[in-house]
Amino acid sequence: MNDTEPLLEEVRKIRSSIEGYKRYQKNTTVWIFVGLFVFLAVTLGAKYYVTQENKDGQAQQDVREQWTWTCVEKEMREGDYSKAIEKANYLLLKSPNYYPGLARLGQAHVMAGNHAEAFIAFQNAHDIFPSEKNLKNLEAARTLLTSTASTPNKP
Predict the structure, then answer these.
(1) pTM of the model
(2) What confidence tens digit (pLDDT) does each residue in 130-146 have?
(3) H-type helices in 69-130, by residue range?
(4) pLDDT tens digits, one per residue of 39-76
(5) CB atoms within 10 A of CB 140
(6) With 134 labelled, which of 37, 43, 52, 90 sits at a CA distance of 20 to 30 A?
């Protein structure tokens, strides 16, 4: 029996180390899955957060991207000259040499009573495309500008 005792002790050590390795392997596998789950949760959460933030930030930009010169004319027909001016200015940022747009901006400024801005818009339209119509608009704006400048303010 004494001869087998060291052998049994060695088998117990091997068995203990195998069981320890199995526990280590099991714990490692569990932690890998936990880490993977946390990584996926954080990644998907960040993606969702960024997507929502972009949607909110792009909402205003998307509305502006839908503006056209027809929208400017509609605002002018409805009498909302400040919106017409805002939309025209935005559209002119995209195409600053669009002389019909500059003329529409000038018309909106005339209707809003901003004669100096109307004169500038009509001047820019005439500079880009010197036509008879643009010249008439420019002269009319000059007349409005001089008549409002010479009219005294009444209390």
Answers:
(1) 0.60
(2) 999 999 999 999 999 89
(3) 69-77, 81-94, 99-112, 115-128
(4) 998 888 888 877 765 555 555 667 888 899 999 999 99
(5) 15
(6) 90
CA-to-CA distance for 104 and 99, rounded, in angstroms?
9
Q: Is the CB of residue 138 less than 8 Å from the CB of residue 122? A: yes
Backbone φ and ψ for 126, nearest 5 degrees, come out as -70, -35
Could you give the CA distance from residue 149 to residue 117 in angstroms, rounded to a whole number?
A: 14
- DSSP annotation string for 20-86: HHHHHHHHHHHHHHHHHHHHHHHHHHHHHHHHHHHHHHHHHHHHHHT--HHHHHHHHHTT-HHHHHH
111 burial class (0-12, 13-18, 19+ CB within 10 angstroms)? middle
Tokens of 65: 């991207």
Give Rg (Cα) of the chain: 38
The domain segmentation of the chain, as residue ranges, is 1-58, 69-149
